[in-house]
Write a structure and sequence with these properties.
The protein is of the alpha+beta class. Helix content is 51%, strand content 9%. The chain has 6 helices and 4 strands; from the N terminus they run αββααββααα. A 4-stranded antiparallel sheet has the order 1-2-3-4. Strand 3 (128-133) and strand 4 (141-142) form a beta hairpin. Helix 1 (2-39) packs parallel to helix 3 (96-118).
Length: 221
């Protein structure tokens, strides 16, 4: 009875961590976007770290990093589907790492979805506020939500590579499985190769007669 209760407790903690990460990302993204819209001149570069980091306030009708600018409705639908899928999938999570990763992904998707739903020119067609420019890394302009989406994808790949499951357990690699099987060793004589079984003498068999007696203890003579 205690085991299901423990799993339920871990699940609640994971869902809480996911929700907390998503709320932090959305609040940070929308708060910074509000400051950008209020204080940055549209389309004018503002150098922060020379040419390495600049703020350029633009409105993006497309996907992350200003791709596919004529498909706003499509990305609104895709973002909504991602948000719903993460919320439905969240109840299966037991790992805190997975909770944080999916929380960041959920927050990033929500941050840009809110722009598409409620900013001009209209519901579902709103333009996403972008302002971060790092020409040395990529030519596109992006925002905080985009950054968290990329970071969550990188951690997602690392968790898969290292075999971290949704419940927090670690998947054994093929090498680890072979090592575990070798350490366990054969459990019965039936697992021995045929040549080993053929070479066994009656004296090696615990069922063989002892002192001229059959296995039941009767005198064989």
């Amino acid at each position: 009875m205690s085991r299901p209760a423990s799993r339920a407790k871990v699940s609640v903690r994971a869902i809480a961590a996911l929700a907390f990460a998503a709320v932090v990302v959305v609040a940070l993204d929308q708060g910074v976007k509000a400051l950008v819209v209020a204080h940055l001149p549209y389309g004018t570069p503002v150098r922060v770290l020379g040419d390495a980091l600049q703020f350029i306030y633009v409105r993006n009708p497309g996907a992350a990093f200003s791709f596919a600018v004529n498909m706003t409705w499509v990305f609104s639908i895709v973002s909504t589907a991602v948000v719903v899928a993460i919320i439905v999938f969240a109840r299966r999570i037991r790992s805190m790492w997975w909770a944080l990763v999916l929380g960041m992904l959920l927050g990033g998707a929500l941050g840009n979805l809110l722009d598409r739903l409620f900013r001009e020119p209209g519901f579902g067609r709103g333009h996403v506020v972008d302002f971060i420019s790092t020409p040395w890394m990529m030519p596109a302009i992006y925002n905080i939500a985009d950054s968290f989406i990329c970071v969550s994808m990188v951690i997602f790949v690392l968790l898969v590579i290292f075999g971290v499951n949704l419940d927090g357990s670690r998947a054994l690699s093929a090498k680890q499985q072979r090592a575990a099987e070798a350490a366990a060793g054969p459990s019965t004589g039936a697992s021995l190769p045929d040549e080993h079984r053929a070479s066994r003498t009656p004296a090696d068999d615990p069922r063989a007669p002892r002192d001229g007696r059959d296995p039941l203890g009767h005198d064989a003579t």
